[in-house]
Design a protein that fits this description.
Blueprint: E1 4-9, H1 13-25, E2 30-35, E3 47-49, H2 54-67, H3 69-79, H4 86-98, H5 111-133, E4 137-138, E5 144-148, H6 155-165, E6 171-175, E7 180-184, E8 189-192, H7 212-227, H8 236-242
Parallel strand pairs: 1-2, 1-3, 5-6
Antiparallel strand pairs: 4-5, 6-7, 7-8
Length: 257
Amino acid sequence: MNTSKTFIYDGSFNGFLTAVFSGFEQKVNQADIQRNGQTQKGLFAETETVFTNVALAKRVWTGIQKKSNSAVKNIYFAFLSEKKGIEPLLYHYIQKLMGSNQKKSHDFSDDVILRINQLAHKVGREKHRMEAFVRFQLTKDEVYFANIEPDFDVLPLISKHFRNRYADQQWIIYDLKRKYGLYYNLEGVELISLDLKEGYGNSIHKNSAFTNEEYEYQDLWNNYFKSTNIKSRINKKLHMQHVPKRYWKYLSEKKVS
């Protein structure tokens, strides 16, 4: 049995699952799975570059599904957290899951199980926040545009929500931090990359990329928001909990100068 080995993969989820397959096939007890370009090789570590194989990745995923449906969600969500060292932690998690006849994914007395569940919960919370706080602006190309900077890579998780909710209009949601986005063209969603030098927040200063009607609508919404606020009843602490300040620059009701 190989006790430890480093696997280098392309950064995709299927690539990670392929690395898991390789580790299991070689009976590697401790697999240090690292993204290409972010590798930190140990002095005496044996290293192998893994090429993504969708068929092998699917075999791993199917095996996990047979063990636990909740583990499927936890693994994917935790992977999208991008937390440093998440891959070897997930490898250990999957080892525990596959090596047990019990529902190991709910054993919170196990530190690894607990940490993965906590990470998945944080990513899930960020997903719901993005679904609530994304604000589109109509461009002169008649495409609704929104940019975000989430703590975690949640674009793959919010795609279905916006595709169903805004099925009759073209839209782009762009992640400035990760430099890629989702583009819905009325038929399907595809991944895109744009050359954006800056983001477009809901500023009082107009941008030539957006229509005048868009700014008129924002002004109406902003005035409505102000008029319905009762200052004496504002609970700033509670408001900050539900709408953290880092999201304000993308909310039309929180226009900034």
